[in-house]
Write a structure and sequence with these properties.
The protein has about 475 residues and is α/β, with parallel strands linked by helices. It folds into two domains: about 160 residues, 3-Layer(bba) Sandwich (FAD/NAD(P)-binding domain), CATH 3.50.50; about 200 residues, 3-Layer(bba) Sandwich (FAD/NAD(P)-binding domain), CATH 3.50.50. It contains 13 helices and 26 strands. The strands form eight sheets. Strands 5-2-1-9-22-21 form a six-stranded mixed sheet, covered by helices on one side. It has a four-stranded parallel sheet with strand order 13-12-11-17. Strand 7 and strand 8 form a beta hairpin. The protein is globular, with a radius of gyration of 23 Å. The protein starts with 8 loop residues before the first strand and ends with a helix.
């Protein structure tokens, strides 16, 4: 298993999202099995989450397991390390991590791919962090489904008109991909749930979608925006452009135009920001994303690569940076994986070239908006393209997803709340939306194995480990 001059090389991928997953898979394809190169993937969960279908989990269409891709099964030969990286020493080529039970460890590396992803973007709006919930991970999707069900059940049980109205009002802030799809699927789910309660026969169930810019899906083709806007309004969703919130309280939200909306439900979909780990590296950043060259390498530390939401990838044709979307993270991950392999002597490095291939937006029911290869579609053709795209983009579980879609078409959707994820387990201000906050950092002995920051002695030990693995190289 030894390649010439490659004894004991270690590559670490931080993050198992779109960028990290495809980087690891592409690296394993490029490196011969006989090469003595170790690839370690550090991720908080043992699965890659196909985030674009998350709204359909919240709507009860898809089983949560259908959009979770097993990392050990789909990445053979990759060593999975469950945990979260807490510190990276770029110069010393080492990192510190904490596992799910709070035990800490350090790891030396020869090459690093930083694909830590992103977290919720918080704005200085009073009360949002206390009363709002995001939509980035499975726990939040499961919570939202239960929350919608619970609010309508509580609304049906009360005789107070004001409380009933507030519980039947749902506010979504941000009309990008996530907010638009959450509002579209959420409205259909709420309408379905309300029909089983005769007490709510004359009670309007309001969905309010707020967007600070002048249209939904800002930044996309205006034809997609018009399609999504029309579909939402036809269903009764109150689309409020050039509007946001000024304050959130336990009883509702105050909009920036002065109106107060009584509600118990605030879904925060304003956008994302790079994982705080990026800034903690101390490396150069652009718009809080790690500055990289055309090969996705950090110029000052060429043994570090970045992709996905963590990377500031130049967009040469139109200027600026590549958007923080799944399709670009996938393509960047593949390039990063191949380029790291090339840095170890396997294959040739290639530049990343940004190209838009169109977008798809699922609006629930038989509705969607899509522009594959910049051809605008709506209605059933867009729905077919949208679902076909997702099936092709998923590494596995395609049959499970297709079966769930078929069952949702021919059978009545399950309409119960499980209560497995409560409000406190999915705080908006979290660095790990994919992991529920259970209030317990670890389950081991009281004083054993707490995660600690790295020390100079730790980094010196890592340097000695690298030297020992590489011999006299």
């Amino acid at each position: 298993m030894k390649g010439p001059g490659m004894a004991g090389r270690r590559v670490v991928v931080v993050g198992g999202g779109f960028g990290g997953f495809h980087a690891a898979r592409e690296f394993m394809k490029a490196v011969p099995r006989e090469a003595n190169v170790e690839l370690i993937l550090i991720n908080p969960t043992d699965y890659f989450l196909y985030v674009p279908l998350l709204p359909e989990v919240a709507a009860g269409i898809l089983d949560p397991r259908a959009i979770t891709i097993s990392l050990p099964r789909t990445l053979p030969g990759v060593r999975l390390l469950l945990g979260q990286v807490t510190e990276i020493d770029p110069t010393g080529q080492s990192l510190t991590y904490a596992d799910p039970e709070g035990h800490s460890g350090t790891l030396a590396f020869d090459q690093l791919i930083l694909a830590a992803g992103s977290v919720h973007k918080l704005l200085p709006v009073p009360g949002v962090a206390d009363h709002g919930h995001g939509f980035r991970g499975l726990p939040e999707a499961l919570y939202l489904r239960d929350h919608i069900t619970r609010q309508l059940e509580l609304a049906a049980a009360t005789d107070a008109p004001a409380e009933r109205s507030a519980r039947c009002t749902f506010v979504v802030v941000g009309a990008g991909y996530t907010g638009t799809e959450v509002a579209a699927h959420g409205q259909l789910l709420a309408d379905l749930l309300a029909r089983r309660h005769p007490e709510l026969a004359d009670q309007p169930v309001r969905w309010i979608l707020l967007e600070a810019t002048d249209r939904v899906l800002p930044g996309l083709d205006r034809r997609l925006s018009r399609t999504a806007d029309r579909v939402l309004r036809e269903r009764g969703v109150e689309v409020c452009t050039e509007t946001s919130i000024r304050e959130s309280t336990q009883n509702g939200v105050r909009l920036d135009d002065g109106r107060f909306v009584p509600t118990r439900s605030l879904v925060w979909c304003v956008g994302v920001r790079p994982d705080p780990l990026v800034a903690a590296t101390g490396l150069d950043t652009v718009d809080d994303r790690l500055a990289v060259d055309d090969f996705l390498a950090v110029p000052s530390h060429p043994w570090i690569f970045a992709c996905g939401d963590a990377a500031a990838v130049p967009r040469h044709r139109s200027g600026g940076l590549a958007p923080m979307t799944a399709q670009h993270a996938v393509r960047q991950g593949k390039v990063a994986g191949r380029n790291v392999a090339a840095a170890l002597g396997f294959g040739r490095a290639a530049r990343y070239r940004h190209r838009e291939r169109g977008f798809v937006v699922d609006l629930g029911g038989r509705k969607a908006a899509a522009n594959p290869l910049h051809l605008p579609l709506s209605g059933l053709p867009a729905k077919a393209v949208t679902r076909g795209y997702h099936l092709l983009a998923m590494p596995t579980n395609r049959l499970r997803v297709a079966v769930d879609w078929l069952l949702d078409t021919v059978m009545r959707r399950q309409q119960v709340q499980l209560g497995l994820v409560r409000s406190g387990a999915v705080p908006l201000d979290t660095a790990s939306p994919e992991v529920p906050d259970l209030g317990v950092a670890y389950t081991g002995p009281e004083s054993a194995g707490r995660a600690q920051p790295a020390t100079p002695d730790t980094h010196q030990a890592n340097a000695q480990e690298r030297k020992a693995r590489h011999g006299s190289e």
